[in-house]
Amino acid sequence: MARTLPKQNAVVETSAAQIAVHWREEEYYYPSAKFVGQSNLSDPDINERFSEKNFPECFREYADLLSWDKYWDTTLDTSDPPFWKWFVGGKINASYNCVDRHLDKYKNKAAIIFVPEPESEAPVSLTYRELYVRVNEFAALLRDFCGLKSGDRVTIHMPMIPELPVTMLACARLGVIHSVVFGGFSGEACGLRAADSGSKVLITMDGYYRNGKLLDHKAAADIAIETAKQAGTVVEKALFWRRHADQNASTSPFVEGRDFWVDEILPRYSGEIVPPVPMDAEAPLFLMYTSGSTGKPKGCQHRTGGYLAYVTGCSKYIQDIHPEDVYWCMADIGWITGHSFIVYGPLALAATSVIYEGVPTYPDAGRVWRIAERLDVNIFHTSPTAIRMLRKSGHDEPTKYNYHFKHMTTVGEPIEPEVWRWYYETVGKGEAVIVDTWWQTENGGFLCTTKPALDPMKPGSAGPGMPGIYPTILDEMGEEVHAGSGKAGNICIRNPWPGIMQTIWGDRDRFVTQYYAKYCKDTNSKNWQDWPYFAADGAVQAVDGYFRILGRVDDVINVAGHRLGTKEIESACLTVPEVAEAAVVPVVDEIKGRVPEVYIVLQPDILPPQHQEILAKVNHVIETMIGKIARPRRILIVPDMPKTRSGKLMRRILAALSNNMNTGDITTLANPDVVESVRVMVQGKEVVALTDGPEDLKAFGSVD
Ligand code: WT7
Known about the structure:
Layout: H1 33-38, H2 46-49, H3 60-63, E1 74-77, E2 85-88, E3 91-92, H4 94-98, H5 103-106, E4 110-115, E5 124-127, H6 128-145, E6 153-156, H7 163-174, E7 177-180, H8 187-197, E8 201-205, E9 207-210, E10 213-216, H9 218-230, E11 237-241, E12 259-261, H10 262-265, E13 279-280, E14 284-290, E15 298-303, H11 305-317, E16 326-329, H12 336-348, E17 352-356, H13 367-375, E18 379-382, H14 384-393, E19 407-411, H15 417-427, E20 433-437, E21 471-474, E22 488-493, E23 503-504, H16 508-515, E24 533-541, E25 547-552, E26 556-559, E27 562-565, H17 566-573, E28 579-589, E29 593-602, H18 611-625, E30 635-637, H19 651-658, H20 673-683, H21 695-699
Parallel strand pairs: 4-17, 6-7, 6-8, 7-14, 8-11, 11-12, 16-17, 16-18, 18-19, 19-20, 29-30
Antiparallel strand pairs: 1-2, 3-13, 4-5, 9-10, 14-15, 15-23, 21-22, 22-24, 24-25, 26-27, 28-29
Helix pairs in contact: 6-7, 8-9, 11-12, 14-15, 19-20
Bound molecules: 5'-O-[(S)-butoxy(hydroxy)phosphoryl]adenosine.
């Protein structure tokens, strides 16, 4: 049966594909002989082994890094495109692979080193043996006290403390699907995600440190549970880990029969061992919600076998993790980077993974480098936003500390070549190889990156496809944009890979529409070749095959490496009764890459004296419905929004105004006059010098 796909892009105003990009070509940097000598991947034969003629069997190499309860029969099943199935017939447990299997050799080695934010609290190490004990005891509690079994969902709203991976691995041990919501998200955002996943159990914490303050986190749980209830899901039990023994960081009261302190229940399960449940390779391991171009966040559903194989392969070959390494990824476990590259990948390889609770610049700009020195970290992983912030607040700080990285990662946003060079020269002291890894929540692991010992680095470019990933750039018509043409287009992945999400939780249609409808020419086809994955990023490919990522081509704003949907923020604004229309656009920010700016049109009859109060309300509602990360730079009250004749709101024009860019041709709008009056409000009476602006902003909002 042919599946009918909703039509996309009836109107494309400007597309990334039509923009010519004029980059200065950057020079190559080469890894040191010392790095190459110890690298996990120094055999150039990898390119041949993972070439298209060996697809999909090449991915056995990643799956063979794991311990399987039952080996699989079919590497890739393409019978129901684009719902690919990997390692079919195999059985595996992720918790076993990240913990139990290391006990023989590494039981006394640190699995996790926790660094509390207050420097007065010393770092705490958990050995693999200790991790094993804690995961087992907590799994027993989940099974016997909460009655959880494989296939159930649990929402976790926790900060960066070791109890978070313990909780995730305990879920994985039972086959319970965890859904970790970033700790900085509001209670409401957490509650909506809990409801969407149908979680009956919420696991959270009383409080945690952030920028020198012990925050009350329990309050968010009460709001989350209430929000979930309104959305039709009753959270029956809430479990609270405690930040400090015998203290309570929260003042909100416990609800009898619903709220429980973990440390009061856990002693009942002391010493219990829970056998890891052999899960189908295709059983979901976790959900990770992310923003898309429509209002509701999507629950990206990741499979057990393929995901774990893929992140383990990435960690071994691209992150170059050996068991002897001390590896520190500064992301938050509440995002996909933390799942793949703090928890699952490194632990599957028996690495020592560092977890830092707090803010990188607390109490001063030297903190990160002090931690690196103290723990003798040798692999470091962070985002351009953090690099920009550290560069600004302490340009020479790294030189004052005696640490040595062999390897560094940048991920989450495009990195400016200047910032890259500071990372390389000053943070890496010219000794560390850098990988710029491009990928997304949906992808499980890396899509484009250099292979650290094999491919030279090029500042600002992610590099070629990861082994086994065949990227291409397509224009709006689906024609390939050739390497070296100087033209940008939509980057797509031509083939399935084991780390790709299975589906959007509870919404198969949206999965197909969002990622495949744009370029699939024949929806009856069973050939994977007919189903390119549309990533919604603009990119350009240089003659050497390296991809340079330009940013989102849809209505998603990448704030400090975190995705926010414009529609999510807009719907929050519209809950303020005085707001009639809202539009949210990205504005270039020196540190965070992009930040949201909000335009609102008010209901008739609202007088200027009310404006201040409305602005405060809009600000507040964004913080409570989404979180502080979505806080706008400015909120502008405008008389009307620029619209096409068909009524489509032109965010691209507002983005141009907010960023002092050329608006392009506006004569075809239904209301071109409004652009000038909005311009005066945004930029003032004087005509400012206009620029061409970043490529992603020119294309912003062109796909929806
Ligand atoms: C979006 C995905 C995947 C981990 C963190 C973000 C942007 C990601 C890079 C990079 C340029 C990048 C893209 C992508 N992005 N990595 N190395 N260079 N841009 O995950 O929240 O799902 O965001 O982040 O725009 O689509 P995410």
